[in-house]
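Listing 4. Sequential folding, example run.
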Amino acid sequence: MSVERERQILEILLKEKKVNVPQLAKALYVSEPSIRRDLQSLEKQNLIKRIHGGAVLEETALSKNKIPFLIREYEQSGAKAMIAKKAINFICDNDVVFLDASTSCYYLIPFLASKRNITVITNSVKALIKLAEYGVHTISTGGTLINSCLALVGEEAHRVIETYNADIAFFSCRGVSEEGYLTDIAPEENYVRKKMIQNAQKSYLLCAGEKFGKSYFHRLCHKEEITGIIHE
């Protein structure tokens, strides 16, 4: 529960810039000592700076880049875990797997440890670290880092992806339009996803239910161009 509260505190701080302990306790329906512990935890992560009676955002490059990803990571975590449990059934021992830098794919990582002799190729810095923790054989695409989402993109990433023939690719996007187009707000990430789709025998979109019927400015592909969509 404290992790969820920390996410909520960060969201409030992004809007208000400065908060106090009584305000947070009232907004989140918890005790002031609990809020103080949450603020202490966030300060240790270099995300906020505690001040007398409250906190402000720690205005460093680290906090500005980490906060959007942390909030994304805990959005609909229950749904993403359900999707991951379904997705793991599509992976076989010895498979070569592409994972993009989405948080949906990040939730798949703990389940990958149940498979033998798989190789994961990913453009996600965060996924690289988590895959190492689980002892999964992993290859980084390399490339240019997008700080806000810890994704590696660009021509170097494309060239690495093109050198592999993957059995399966998993990825996500911001929305699936009424017409069936997979869309996002980050062209650079979409170009990496497109390379993964092209160089995998099968490709699956991991998609929370709320993304259906939403359209963003950059098209990745049509749903008919991939193998399938996995949702909760």
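-- end of first protein; second protein begins --
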Amino acid sequence: MNAFGLITVDKPIGPTSHKVVSVVRSGTGVKKVGHAGTLDPRASGVLVLCLGSATRLSEFLSTASKRYEAVIRFGSSTETYDAEGDFVHVTGAAPSLEDIRDLLPAFRGDIEQVPPAYSAIKVKGRKAYEMARSGEEVDLDAREVTIYQLSIIDYNPPDLTLDIECSAGTYIRSIANDLGEQLSTGAHLANLRRTKAGPFTLDDCIPLTQLEMAIAAGDWQQYIRPAVEALPELPKIKVSGEELTRVTHGNRIPARDVSSDLACAIGPDGDIVAILEPVEDGTLWHPRKVFSR
């Protein structure tokens, strides 16, 4: 069946992001379903699903900032930087709250971060975790990420709970491991919950079990959100009549008072029909992406 829009799911610990997509695809009959930003099986929280041609929005949602509640356990480090891996260093020690507070400023702002060897990053065409599992040495380059916010929620040694807002591509596991190394205690990520992805928070989400029940009852469509909600920061240009026809066929329309590099063309139903970009010195809007229904 055809569907267009977003479903924001509170993913539980256990299933992969791909499994959630599979549940929705098979249960609803919607052929085109994708997610906008992977959550590991051991992580829970906000997972944005894109239905139909709204999957074309995933590039915007995947690169949007994310926010997490992370539990970091001091006293031991693992090969995967989380509770999944084998222990590689055990001290049983936990740092003082004062030492943690003194160190945290170094993890805020633009930082250089080395991703975990057990990650899906490609190295000469192969996934790093496949190489690591086969015993090969994995040498990953540091990459720049941005930590917009990093604050302590709670410290009950050996567990430190942090509120972290960061750019896409940030590995919270690496933050845990690096904290343990710099505090000489060892540490790993014990629990991770995504509390925000782009503009969507946990308050916007439906628990996966509730969605599954709605699918079984045949009333799951009530949880579809307008696709335009994915891009709240972009100007909205209402189109109808001839302009709507031109935009949906990929043709340009006149532009007025252009103040942004991109804008959303909004159809009569209030949802997005295209993403527009200014051309010809801002006198025309060109449909960069058109969304079919």
